[in-house]
């Protein structure tokens, strides 16, 4: 068997899955957003779906919310996760805490949404504790943290889960090699702050950046958390796309596809921009 | 590390391109054969055909008591007839109709996955437009003798003639549920007094955002209050509302709501997604009054300690909004005979009684047609001090308008009140 | 910083903040009526936990196990050869293949599935376990392939060469040499893909059409219902297996465990 054929055969199953489902799926979403009606029905090609979607104030509001939630969650997770990793390294007890972090990572986001809801809702555990402490007199006084206009509940869920993801990635990067480098730096007379800025953070930047891209792409596109912790209006783009797909009026489907394409485009752009920003990361990411 | 030098291979592009086009290319398959109709007039034949069928009934799944009843008594009765019932719980009936439409669009004209849908109103009308339903079978159900098929509430569904395309199985009536420890009887007399109370005690009233079924009813309640019962009744019996009349009443209602909504939950800045959300808010004491379509279920919630004991019900002076809901069978359904047997079982007087006792859902059958002993048991059902009797509830029943108007009300409300567009 | 008295306290604070959000879930799962503003449930009840023994939940548990096991097995079967090609061989187009395999991580599976749904219906895959398993390969295969590519890159192929020189056939080499060496990575890949599948909600909903009922589907409708106790009890059932699996794995495997981080719903 020729080596080329061998490699082709080895890759075939995975490429079939990605090719048929991902490439085919995106292609289909694009085609259907342009009016293609597969299997049966009349295809009417036009950009109407995009025009309608882009002119819709609900979509504008959705875009704003999606951008706000995903950027804040990603930034918070990146900063807090890095800080947490550094803190844990200083504190010691690293193994046990790392195990705890891993456990938190494994919590499905659906359960995370339930947990954050039960914690932060006006009748949630925090509000009950505030009442006990005399900070609020009635449930009406509690500020809304879920189903709120800003999206704090959604942000809280993502930040909680993804901080530990970033922390785990950063902890993995803070191996012995970093300690050695830091020792060298300190022998050369670097202050603690200089060591952090010149040695530790540069080592952490690539893996944390790669992790942040994954977080950003995930948060931008995910459905269940904003659906459960958000408002009926505005919703994030994924929720909006899903709802239009499920609309009883099938003529909304091209709009759903247009929104899905928009989300895919946004996540891809965000990923590319980020990778470019931190340069040379693409090589490490697989 | 030994990494073998390889001749350049480039399988990736080719494989991917092939795979991606495979789906597109194979998309041109022909449509399947149309499903053969089931003739309901020969009921024994229907029963025979239904033997061994498994009926997928798509129904709103948010009512736990109803789920238990359907899984228990209804499923047992169907099992006796050799039919397996599979309850598919959905959050919005539109999902099921959308699914059948999607199958229709994908050329699946037989062997459809949805055998029966709990449906009414806009969802039914959409199905009628798309020629989705199996029709002309409901009068042939043996238990249809207990249903007054000429009653306008059963013969039309939100203005659309039913024409045997769906079989009635329950009745919904609106009511206001409130905590009598917080609101006086004078506060819950009318829409006017309720809104005055929200101005005095802000943050304690809300309703789900339409298109939620109950949320839509709440907005209609306010609109009907502006229109007046006579106009609504005339519109429902005649050909709907005049545009001018509607627009004037709508603007007046929404202005009133926007004024009042400062006193709603969260200052009217947002609305809950669903009725379940509203009921959780009431159970938590965040709100003290809400509108419901299921007043019969309130008693058991009080009994369980979920709702406070001071919970009471009333009908606002504008009147109560009632409608019947149905079981529809898609024309492409795999197990249509079984679905018809399900519709018949649901109209069985004993099942209707069991439904009323277990869930507080009002019967759709005409109690004059059932045996006196059974009728007495209906009258004897005691739902507790919190709950009004069906007679009290429906004394001032208002009809539903056509579903096109409903959809318009919902859209306009979302634009004006929820999104705050001018 | 040596062992300051603050250290223990700081570790405790970090630990508490980490698990705090799960506390109300545990409380609600065993709560009876628990009205605002009681801080703790005034009475405990086994109702929530008993709900987990109902027919519906057990059936969904079975479906979840079936779907996730199938997805994990298939993803590893598909990912193993791809990982071998990527980890051991340099070839033209390798970067493109890597990019394609990364695509499903960046491009949302929801967008992909919306586009494909009509074909799933057309070919009778909608509403079936098979369809759900197939669509869940989208978010899982990339991880399996990446993990196994990394493992192959670290693999010392001298052992394989030696086996071949000593006359072992390709199958025997695979069985007795390669697979044992790859075992830790395979276990990790299996568990990781299992977890991704276990948590999956929206793809299952779309392709399964409400008829393939996995635990996340039940949980979602429970969260939407007015019964918080039921939602919390189901939440515990959904969260327990992945957390236990990961904790067990953290002890066994070391390095690859960072990949667990990407097991997301």
UniProtKB/TrEMBL annotation, chain A:
Xref: InterPro entries: MetI-like, MetI-like_sf
Ranges where the ABC transmembrane type-1 domain occurs: 63-274
Lineage top rank: taxon: Bacteria
Keyword Transmembrane: yes
Signal sequence region: none
Keyword Methyltransferase assigned: no
Subcellular location: Cell membrane
Gene3D superfamilies: MetI-like
Membrane topology field: Multi-pass membrane protein
Keywords on record: Cell membrane, Membrane, Transmembrane, Transmembrane helix, Transport
Segments crossing the lipid bilayer: 65-87, 99-121, 158-178, 199-223, 256-275
Protein family according to the UniProt entry: Belongs to the binding-protein-dependent transport system permease family. CysTW subfamily.
Protein name: ABC transporter permease subunit
From TrEMBL, chain B:
InterPro entries: SBP, YnjB
Keywords, alphabetical: Signal
Pfam families: SBP_bac_8
Protein's recorded name: ABC transporter substrate-binding protein
Lineage of the organism: Bacteria, Bacillati, Actinomycetota, Actinomycetes, Propionibacteriales
Signal peptide per UniProt: 1-27
Organism: Nocardioides cremeus
Entry keyword Endoplasmic reticulum: no
From TrEMBL, chain C:
Membrane topology annotation: Multi-pass membrane protein
Keyword Transport: yes
PROSITE patterns: ABC_TM1
Subcellular location field: Cell inner membrane; Cell membrane
Domain ABC transmembrane type-1 stretches: 61-249
Protein name: ABC transporter permease subunit
Keywords on record: Cell inner membrane, Cell membrane, Membrane, Transmembrane, Transmembrane helix, Transport
InterPro entries: MetI-like, MetI-like_sf
Coarse class of the protein's main subcellular location: membrane
Membrane spanning stretches: 12-36, 56-78, 99-123, 129-151, 185-209, 229-250
Organism, scientific name: Nocardioides cremeus
Residues making up the signal peptide according to the UniProt record: none
Record keyword Lipid metabolism present: no
Pfam family name, one: BPD_transp_1
Entry similarity comment: Belongs to the binding-protein-dependent transport system permease family.
């Amino acid at each position: 068997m020729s080596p080329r054929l061998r490699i082709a055969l080895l890759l075939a199953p995975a490429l079939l899955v990605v090719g048929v489902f991902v490439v085919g799926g995106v292609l289909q979403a694009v085609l259907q957003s342009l009016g293609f009606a597969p299997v049966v029905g009349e295809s009417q090609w036009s950009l109407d779906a995009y025009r309608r979607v882009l002119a819709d104030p609900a979509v504008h509001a959705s875009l704003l919310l999606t951008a706000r939630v995903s950027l804040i969650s990603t930034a918070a997770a990146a900063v807090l996760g890095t800080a947490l990793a550094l803190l844990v390294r200083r504190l010691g007890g690293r193994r046990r805490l790392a195990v705890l972090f891993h456990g938190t990572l494994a919590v499905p986001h659906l359960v995370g949404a339930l947990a954050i809801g039960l914690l932060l809702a006006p009748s949630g555990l925090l509000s009950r504790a505030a009442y006990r402490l005399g900070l609020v007199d009635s449930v009406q006084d509690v500020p809304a943290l879920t189903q709120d206009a800003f999206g704090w509940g959604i942000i809280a869920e993502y930040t909680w889960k993804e901080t530990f993801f970033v922390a785990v990635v950063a902890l993995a990067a803070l191996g012995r090699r970093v300690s050695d480098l830091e020792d060298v730096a300190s022998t050369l007379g670097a202050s603690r702050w200089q060591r952090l800025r010149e040695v530790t953070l540069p080592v952490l930047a690539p893996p944390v950046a790669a992790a942040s891209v994954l977080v950003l792409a995930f948060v931008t596109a995910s459905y269940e958390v904003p659906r459960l912790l958000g408002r009926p209006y505005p919703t994030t783009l994924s929720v909006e796309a899903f709802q239009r797909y499920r609309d009883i009026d099938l003529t909304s489907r091209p709009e759903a596809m247009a929104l899905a394409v928009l989300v895919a485009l946004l996540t891809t752009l965000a990923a590319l921009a980020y990778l470019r920003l931190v340069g040379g990361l693409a090589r490490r990411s697989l | 590390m030994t990494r073998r030098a390889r001749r350049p291979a480039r399988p990736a592009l080719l494989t991917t391109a092939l795979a991606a086009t495979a789906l597109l290319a194979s998309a041109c398959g022909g449509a399947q054969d149309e499903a053969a109709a089931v003739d309901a007039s020969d009921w024994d034949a229907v029963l025979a055909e239904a033997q061994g069928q498994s009926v997928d009934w798509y129904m709103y799944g948010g009512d736990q008591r109803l789920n238990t009843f359907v899984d228990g008594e209804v499923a047992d009765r169907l099992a006796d007839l050799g039919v397996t019932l599979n309850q598919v719980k959905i959050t919005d009936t539109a999902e099921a109709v959308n699914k059948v439409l999607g199958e229709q669009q994908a050329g699946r004209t037989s062997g459809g996955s949805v055998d029966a849908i709990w449906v009414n109103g806009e969802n039914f009308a959409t199905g009628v437009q798309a020629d989705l339903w199996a029709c002309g079978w409901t009068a042939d159900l043996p238990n249809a003798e207990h249903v007054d098929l000429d009653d306008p509430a059963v013969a039309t569904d939100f203005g659309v003639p039913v024409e045997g395309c769906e079989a009635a199985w329950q009745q919904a009536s609106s009511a206001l549920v409130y905590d009598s420890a917080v609101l006086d009887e004078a506060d819950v007399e009318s829409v006017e007094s309720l809104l005055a109370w929200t101005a005095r005690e802000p943050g304690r009233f809300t309703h789900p955002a339409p298109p939620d079924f109950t949320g839509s009813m709440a907005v209609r309640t306010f609109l009907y209050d502006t229109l007046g019962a006579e106009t609504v009744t005339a519109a429902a019996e005649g050909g709907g509302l005049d545009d001018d009349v509607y627009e004037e009443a709508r603007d007046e209602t929404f202005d009133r709501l926007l004024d009042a909504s400062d006193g709603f939950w969260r200052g009217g800045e947002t609305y809950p997604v669903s009725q379940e959300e509203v009921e959780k808010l009431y159970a938590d004491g965040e709100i003290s009054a809400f509108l419901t379509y299921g007043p019969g279920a309130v008693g058991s919630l009080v009994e369980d300690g979920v709702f406070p004991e001071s919970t009471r019900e009333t009908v606002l002076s504008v009147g109560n909004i009632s409608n019947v809901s149905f079981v529809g069978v898609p024309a492409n359904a795999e197990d249509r005979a079984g679905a018809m047997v399900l519709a018949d079982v649901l109209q069985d007087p004993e099942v209707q009684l069991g439904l009323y006792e277990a869930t507080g859902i009002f019967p759709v059958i005409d109690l004059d047609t059932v045996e006196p002993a059974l009728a007495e048991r209906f009258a004897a059902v005691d739902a507790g001090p919190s709950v009004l009797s069906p007679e009290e509830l429906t004394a001032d029943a208002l009809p539903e308008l056509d579903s096109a108007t409903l959809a318009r009300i919902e859209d306009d409300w979302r634009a004006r009140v929820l999104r705050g567009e001018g | 910083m040596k062992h300051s008295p603050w250290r223990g306290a700081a570790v405790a604070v970090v630990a508490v903040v980490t698990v705090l959000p799960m506390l109300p879930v545990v409380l609600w799962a065993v709560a009876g009526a628990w009205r605002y503003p009681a801080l703790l449930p005034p009475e405990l009840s086994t109702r929530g936990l008993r709900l987990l023994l109902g027919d519906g939940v057990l059936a969904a548990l079975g479906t979840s196990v079936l779907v996730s096991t199938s997805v994990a097995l298939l993803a590893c079967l598909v990912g193993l050869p791809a990982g071998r090609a990527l980890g051991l061989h340099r070839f033209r187009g390798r970067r493109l293949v890597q990019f394609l395999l990364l695509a499903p991580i960046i491009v949302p599976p929801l967008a992909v599935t919306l586009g494909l749904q009509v074909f799933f219906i057309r070919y009778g895959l909608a509403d079936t376990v098979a369809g759900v398993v197939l669509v869940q390969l989208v978010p899982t295969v990339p991880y399996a392939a990446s993990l196994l590519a990394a493992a192959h890159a670290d693999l010392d192929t001298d052992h394989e060469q030696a086996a071949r020189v000593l006359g072992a056939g390709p199958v025997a080499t695979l069985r007795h040499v390669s697979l044992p060496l790859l075992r830790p990575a395979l276990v990790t890949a299996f568990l990781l893909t299992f977890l991704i599948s276990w948590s999956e909600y929206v793809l299952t909903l779309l392709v399964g059409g409400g008829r393939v009922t996995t635990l996340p589907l039940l949980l979602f409708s429970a969260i939407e219902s007015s019964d918080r106790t039921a939602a919390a009890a189901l939440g515990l059932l959904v969260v327990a297996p992945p957390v236990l699996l990961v904790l067990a794995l953290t002890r066994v495997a070391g390095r690859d465990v960072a990949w667990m981080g990407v097991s997301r719903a």
